[in-house]
Amino acid sequence: MKEDNCGMNGLLLEIIPDGMGSAAKWAEPAPIYRGEKISPEFQRELRRMEKGEVTQAILIFSEEVDEPTKKTLLAAEKEARSDKLQLLKLSSEKAQESVNEFFNKRGKDYFTGVKQIDFEPLFVKRLPLLNTMVVPMTPKLVEEIAAQPNVLGILPNQPCKLIQPFKTDPKAIVRREVRDGITWGLKRLKMDKIWEQGFKGAGVRIGHLDTGVYPDHPELSGKVVEWMAFSPQGVPLQGCPIYDSDFHGTHTAGTLVGGGASGVQIGVAPDAKLVSGQVLQNGGGTLTQVLSGINWIIEQDIQVLSMSLGFSRYEPKFAYYVERLLLLDIFPSFAIGNAGWGNTSSPGNISIACGVGAINYSSEVTSFSSGGSLSFYDKAKKSTTHVIKPDVCAPGVAVFSAVPPLMDGVEINGNFYAWLDGTSMATPHVAGIAALLTQAVPEKRAVEIMEALYQTAKPAGELGHNNRYGRGIIDPLKALQKLTST
Fold it and tell me: Please, are residues 451 and 19 in contact by the beta-carbon 8 Å criterion?
């Protein structure tokens, strides 16, 4: 598997993927060649299209701000996030000027005689914080846009899906959890030792892009501070009430910020607040939906993003968006997938994202937890980087959390819960821990927190850093000690 170098055309946050050396450094990116602009998968799709067919394309642009401002703000401390956001918006406006003008003058020409669509500029969707546009395209138009010098990449819209969990019946574990008053995963991770130090996520906002959330569950009451649902076309559904189109989002939200209304503590960061966006409906969605959710959630002042979803195809240029999250000091915790060894799910397998695998009660990686060794080729440097996924593992079997009332769960005190298996369940454990560490050491950047989790993970398996456990099982207490001692 090969990944194009698609970093920001200016200063780039370069992550050291193997956990060695410094956590991050600022470096000039390699040039982007025109032949690499169109995603390989999109090229194949365009070749299959018949004359007159229309598809949807996602355009990524270069940065267009003056160099002194860029260097000052992109390297600034975390407190400068609002200035960075303003910079990114300004950059996006400038970068897209020529393409906007092109669409306004010549866009309709490419759709003459095409029955599916009467092209109008209103069909162009702009995502300024991601420096991205989503537009209808014909194959000829794609080639024309690829020739624009400030277009970095063109990729197809594609289906996204829920990383479907498994239902389980953990009778022995249930007895222990009732006795201990805490889920086995939180106990195994020694979360109580971190809570005792006063770190429960207060003041931290966790981004949550999923199937939605059921806000009336007592575990989540008052914790969802921002909400937005998005259509498959990426349109924000203003005024849409908060709801869960499935059960998945409520379950992952409970692991992030839930309390102990059932008598068993379920949430890693119970004092954190949740910023939730619905980008999957009934288990499915589109890449445009997800990108629109990310564009919105970035502006909600989050420090962590938890996503337990997968794309239908690997898209290397999505690394551009992960870079954007890290630039803004947002920790990206993404599920690695439930397809077993030899498989990985995007975006969890993007080299600079924190891809999360699942362990069971015996601290063994589960058979369903995905993992693999990937190769990313940099044409500019003419070198290949080998990346092992997942990056870390966390509890992902028989995870007890909240679900909506329509879910076939267990009723406790008039509310519903379920025990589920999946890397979807492991991912919010890591995201919640990142929130606690952000509260504990607010001066540390997201890449430093990520690096601390990698360096302190407990190795597992016979080969050390491997594609079953990654660097190992996360050890939040050791990560906290490392961060507070440096």
Answer: yes
281 and 323 inside one domain: yes
Asked if residue 374 and residue 232 are part of one domain, the reply reads yes
Residue with the larger pLDDT of the pair 30 and 299 = 299
If phi > 0 it is left, if psi is from -120 to 50 it is alpha, else beta; for residue 422 that is left
Same domain (yes/no): 169, 127: no
- If one counts the domains in the chain, the total is 2
Helix (H) or strand (E) holding 309: strand 309-311
Rounded to whole angstroms, the Cα distance separating 30 from 12 reads 10
Torsion angle of the four alpha carbons 238, 84, 25, 149, in this order, in degrees rounded to the nearest 10:
80
- Let me know whether 231 and 126 are in one domain: no
Q: What CA–CA distance (Å, rounded) separates 123 from 142?
A: 16
State the first-to-last Cα distance of the chain, in angstroms, to the nearest integer.
37
pLDDT at 312 exceeding the cut of 90 = no
Task: Measure Cα distances from 267 to 62, 184, 399 in Å.
Answer: 40, 12, 11
Which sign, positive or negative, has the C-alpha torsion 441, 388, 286, 368?
A: negative
Q: Are residues 428 and 466 located together in one domain of the fold?
A: yes
Task: Look up the pTM and report it.
Answer: 0.89
169 and 73 in a common domain: no
Query: Measuring CA to CA, how many Å separate 354 from each of 19, 152, 392, 393, 486?
Result: 11, 24, 8, 10, 22
Task: Note down the domain range covering 167.
Answer: 161-484
Co-location of 136 and 285 in the same domain: no
- How far is residue 359's CA from residue 23's CA, in Å, rounded to a whole number? 26
Average pLDDT, the chain: 86
Q: Are residues 152 and 240 in the same domain?
A: no
Look at 483 and 141; give whichever has higher pLDDT.
483
pLDDT at 78 over 90: no
Q: Say if CB 308 and CB 369 are below 8 A apart.
A: no
